[in-house]
Amino acid sequence: MSTAYIIVTVVAAIAMLIATGIDVFRAQWVRDNMKSYGLPEWTLYPLAVIKAAGALGLLVGLVIPALGLAAAICLVLYFLGAILTILRARGYGDLAYPMPYLALAAGSLGLFVAS
Description:
It is a single chain. With 115 residues, the chain is mostly helical. It is 77% helix and 0% strand. The chain has one domain (3-114). It is elongated.
């Protein structure tokens, strides 16, 4: 397990937990974006649970590698889905929001595979 993998994975997990907090506290800008994407507001909590589970999976994956791999794959798919949702709604200006999270999840996945 490389130092780069550990650092990227921990940073990714922290970022996912911050994104979870934003969803849980239902920031107004997030609710507005969800509405513009055609998603009901109630979906914020299930999406927050997915991000929190992914973050915990990444951290546990430092001890149980298979779980970290599964969490990284699921987070990559989650954020690809977020990007597709934004593109479908033609909210091109909002693409910058999920990209860093996708990059961190993909970085964790890539470094896991490389090690």
